[in-house]
UniProtKB/TrEMBL annotation, chain A:
Domain of life: Bacteria
Protein name: Response regulator
PANTHER family to which the protein is assigned, alphabetical: HYBRID SIGNAL TRANSDUCTION HISTIDINE KINASE C, TWO-COMPONENT HISTIDINE KINASE
Entry keyword annotation includes Phosphoprotein: yes
InterPro entries associated with the record: CheY-like_superfamily, Sig_transdc_resp-reg_receiver
Keywords tagged on the record: Phosphoprotein
PTM-bearing positions, type 4-aspartylphosphate: D56
Limits of the Response regulatory domain: 4-123
Pfam families: Response_reg (PF00072)
Coiled coil residues, start to end: none
From TrEMBL, chain B:
Pfam families recorded: GAF_3, Guanylate_cyc
Protein name as it appears in the record: Adenylate/guanylate cyclase domain-containing protein
Source taxonomy: Bacteria, Pseudomonadati, Bacteroidota, Cytophagia, Cytophagales
Record-linked SUPFAM superfamilies: GAF domain-like, Nucleotide cyclase
Domain of life: Bacteria
InterPro entries, A to Z: A/G_cyclase (IPR001054), Adenylyl/Guanylyl_Cyclase_3/4 (IPR050697), GAF (IPR003018), GAF-like_dom_sf (IPR029016), Nucleotide_cyclase (IPR029787)
Organism: Algoriphagus sediminis
Record-annotated Guanylate cyclase domain positions: 308-434
Length: 126, 561
């Protein structure tokens, strides 16, 4: 089965940016999925069970925190690695995010190289 | 940019497979799509052997091949080619956005680090670090114009040793050229610069951006590269952006440093002024007014306090000064004051005023402070006299008088000229008592008002000299002499004679002049140096012969000041 990354953000350009940052992984057989709100994200998660999720916190229709909580606590999918993404200056959310089960927390604007590095690390790609 | 994968397109465009299926069924034919490795991603693999194929190409890479035996091939190719072109354009755009985002990230991170730096030095270092991180340079320097020294300083250097700083310092024309033109650019023709030895021989090109303030050029950032590919316009654009941010940070830092220096200079000046003022207006005076600093003092500030006011005066100063030049006179008075000043301060008093050869001091705490200071001053004068005697100079006689009473210390004058002033009858009285030292031939006199405030256990020995009626005053003042400051042998004798003296004074005031004269003579026989007794003896003899004045109540009437 191929490795899957889900990118969840309500802003199209951020989805594009993340996908673009991770582009080279596509060559290595990683599949990308995107969702523009929490509800859509949950649907993709149910169908595809991704290995890694880049999850924006502030989104309409179910925010990232709630998605994270459901995935980790209700759906029993704790093996999915979740990277919470939030705007700079909202660092107070950090603990809240970790409390609902997020594995790591990154602030936007993120460093594209760091993002790729993290993805390789989580997916155990060389 | 990563290659476009046909497999990913088939996955992403979820209706593509369905359309291909339908299209083939509709045309009653088969189509097969293979990826560049020859692996089939759609359709019947058998087609690879005996049918026609057309490659799908983006740029110069084959993305896929479409295989078919019918002319459906062209139509499928058209659709796939459209999708691949779309994907390729999307990627190109994506790559550009990512690039911009990366730059934004660099600038954002740079702004963040700049926010933590205050000094130009730190800002220069951070600027260089960020510039060389985001632009592939092998070395960099930042040069800033030092307005004060009129030189170009190099506050930050990074990377390999590609710049010769010593030569740059000596041969500033290169940096000047860059700084003064106030522009930004890439220098690929650097042979001339290399010839001067300013940069290492392996440097291939330089990139620079000026650091501009609001209305002046402050300096420049110069990066050097040793690689074969030169710096690009994109690098220059980024460097200019970084330089722009750095400039405003440096400008505020310079302003901050300038303000800091000015504040420090102002503070130092204030301190110097305060130190000078302290010598003119005693700190104690200012603090008595409840103020911390002379600058807090306002016209009309005042405070009333019970204090002891002390006056000293050099006896027969006029005679003494006649023998000296004005300069010698001044030096003499100064050296005298230099001896007495510290003694006054030591006993918690402060000098309110120097009045030529006399001093007015205030003791705001205990009256005995003033008495003890006077004793110290008498000793100091004796020491001085021993030296003067050796040098064959005339001896100095000083009189000290004091009075304790309420005193108003305040600031008078007008808005243009203020002065610290003491307004009080206490000052007048103290001054009068000081002048009585001449009349009574006694070096240290005070009022009863001072003595009554001194505790009995003070070890001070006093001799009451009766009352005086000062000119213009209605109440007679009791005058007291302190015997402690006298030479040990003299003060011992006076203390022994005190009982007789007191008795004689009592008789004198009771107009029993004959008996008084007898006792005064007894005291004088034992202590021929007691000039005070001589004064009373003379008065008593006069009153005995001529009769005491009308209404005489024992008080000496002082008609002169």
């Amino acid at each position: 089965m191929s490795l899957k990354i889900l990118i969840v953000d309500d802003e199209a350009h951020i989805r594009m940016l993340i996908e673009q940052s991770l582009e080279e992984l596509e060559d290595e057989g990683v599949e990308f999925y995107t969702a523009e709100n929490g509800e859509m994200a949950l649907e993709v998660i149910k169908e595809e069970t991704p290995d890694l999720i880049f999850l924006d916190v502030m989104m309409p229709k179910l925010n990232g925190m709630e998605v994270c909580r459901r995935v980790k606590q209700e759906m029993g999918l704790s093996q999915i690695y979740i990277v919470l993404l939030t705007a700079k200056g909202q660092e107070s959310d950090r603990q809240k995010g970790l409390d609902v089960g997020a594995d790591i927390y990154m602030t936007k604007p993120f460093d594209p190289e760091l993002l790729l590095e993290k993805a390789r690390d989580v997916l155990q790609l060389p | 940019m990563a290659k476009i994968s046909i497999k990913a397109i088939l996955r992403k465009e979820d209706t593509l497979r369905l359309w291909l299926d339908n299209w083939c069924t509709h045309n009653k034919t088969e189509v097969c799509i293979s990826d560049p490795s020859g692996k089939v991603v759609y359709g019947n693999p058998d087609l690879l052997h005996d049918s026609l194929s057309i490659p799908l190409i983006t740029g110069d890479a084959i993305v896929a091949r479409v295989w078919s035996k019918s002319n459906v091939l062209n139509q499928v190719w058209d659709v796939l080619n459209m999708l691949i072109t779309k994907e390729s354009e999307k990627r190109k755009l994506g790559a550009e956005v990512l690039h911009l985002y990366q730059e934004l990230n660099i600038i954002y991170g740079f702004a963040e680090s700049l926010g933590e730096a205050i000094s130009t030095q730190a800002i220069a270092e951070i600027t260089l670090a960020h510039s060389t991180n985001s632009i592939p340079a092998d070395a960099g320097i930042i040069t800033l114009w030092e307005e004060k020294e009129k030189t170009l300083a190099v506050p930050a250097v990074t990377g390999e040793q590609l710049f010769d700083l010593d030569l740059l310092a000596k041969n500033t024309s290169f940096l000047f050229q860059i700084v003064l033109n106030g522009q930004s650019g890439i220098i690929t023709d650097i042979e001339a610069i290399k010839k001067l030895g300013l940069v290492a021989p392996n440097v291939t090109n330089l990139i620079y951006a000026s650091l501009k303030g609001k209305d002046q050029i402050m300096g420049a950032i110069v990066l050097a590269g040793t690689r074969s590919e030169p710096f690009t316009a994109a690098h220059l654009k980024l460097l200019v952006t970084l330089a722009l941010q750095s400039s405003s940070a440096i400008e505020s830092a310079l302003l901050f440093e300038k303000n800091l220096t000015e504040i420090r200079m102002r503070e130092e000046a204030m301190q110097r002024i305060n130190e000078v003022i302290k010598k003119f207006v005693p700190n104690e005076f200012i603090s008595s007014l409840g103020k911390k600093n002379i600058t807090d003092v306002r016209l009309g500030d005042q405070v009333e306090k019970i204090v002891t006011v002390l006056f000293t005066d050099i006896r027969d100063f006029t005679t003494l000064s006649e023998r000296m030049s004005p300069e010698e006179n001044f030096r003499f008075v100064s050296s005298f004051n230099e001896i007495l000043g510290p003694i006054i301060r030591e006993h918690k008093g402060f000098i309110n005023q120097y009045l030529g050869d006399s001093i007015m001091a205030i003791f705001p705490n205990r009256p005995q402070d003033a008495v003890l200071a006077s004793i110290g001053m008498q000793r100091a004068v004796r020491t001085l006299n021993r030296q003067r005697k050796e040098q064959g100079l005339p001896l100095i006689n000083a009189g000290i008088g004091m009075h304790t009473g309420p005193l108003i210390m305040g600031i008078t004058g007008d808005e243009h000229r203020l002065d610290a002033a003491t307004i009080s009858d206490t000052v007048n009285t103290a001054s009068r008592i000081e002048s009585l030292t001449k009349y009574y031939q006694s070096p240290l006199l005070m009022s009863e008002d001072t003595v009554k405030r001194i505790p009995n256990n003070s070890n001070l020995a006093f001799r009451r000299l009766g009352k005086v009626l000062l000119k213009g005053k209605n109440n007679a003042l009791s005058v007291v002499e302190c015997m402690n400051g006298l030479q040990e042998s003299i003060s011992t004798k006076r203390k022994e004679n005190l009982e007789d003296f007191d008795k004689a004074m009592e008789l004198y005031q009771q107009r029993k002049f004959e008996n008084a004269i007898a006792l005064f003579n007894k005291v004088l026989d034992s202590d021929p140096e007691d000039h005070t007794v001589k004064v009373f003896l003379k008065n008593a003899e006069k009153y005995l012969n001529q009769g005491a004045p009308k209404n005489w109540n024992g008080a000496e009437e002082m008609l002169y000041k």
